Amino acid sequence: MAMALRMAISREREYLADAGAAELVGSPQLMARALGRLERLNQPAWWQRLLGFPAPQEPTGWAALLSSHPPTRLRIARLLAMTPPRPDLACFG
């Protein structure tokens, strides 16, 4: 139980670090894009897939509870949620 709590705190700190980095960079979208690129680099190349190298899987169940980092897709979603709405794209119909 204590380990799961510690890992939950670690995941929350990771989200806070992402938010801080987005503020330093000046754009949550740029941070989200960078995380997406890093995630793609973590995927096997086409020739590795042909040879049967498995793609990394997102942890589920207990593995997710005991993971120190949140899944990249959730980190990207939080960063994109930080993006302020653009008034120039609003529909005034």
From TrEMBL:
<comment type="similarity">
    <text>Belongs to the peptidase M48 family.</text>
</comment>
<dbReference type="InterPro" id="IPR050083">
    <property type="entry name" value="HtpX_protease"/>
</dbReference>
<dbReference type="GO" id="GO:0046872">
    <property type="term" value="F:metal ion binding"/>
</dbReference>
<keyword id="KW-0812">Transmembrane</keyword>
<keyword id="KW-0862">Zinc</keyword>
<dbReference type="GO" id="GO:0006508">
    <property type="term" value="P:proteolysis"/>
</dbReference>
<dbReference type="Pfam" id="PF01435">
    <property type="entry name" value="Peptidase_M48"/>
</dbReference>
<dbReference type="GO" id="GO:0005886">
    <property type="term" value="C:plasma membrane"/>
</dbReference>
<feature type="domain" description="Peptidase M48">
    <location>
        <begin position="3"/>
        <end position="82"/>
    </location>
</feature>
<dbReference type="InterPro" id="IPR001915">
    <property type="entry name" value="Peptidase_M48"/>
</dbReference>
<protein>
    <recommendedName>
        <fullName>Peptidase M48 domain-containing protein</fullName>
    </recommendedName>
</protein>
<keyword id="KW-0378">Hydrolase</keyword>
<keyword id="KW-0472">Membrane</keyword>
<keyword id="KW-1133">Transmembrane helix</keyword>
<keyword id="KW-1003">Cell membrane</keyword>
<dbReference type="GO" id="GO:0004222">
    <property type="term" value="F:metalloendopeptidase activity"/>
</dbReference>
<keyword id="KW-0645">Protease</keyword>
<keyword id="KW-0482">Metalloprotease</keyword>
<keyword id="KW-0479">Metal-binding</keyword>
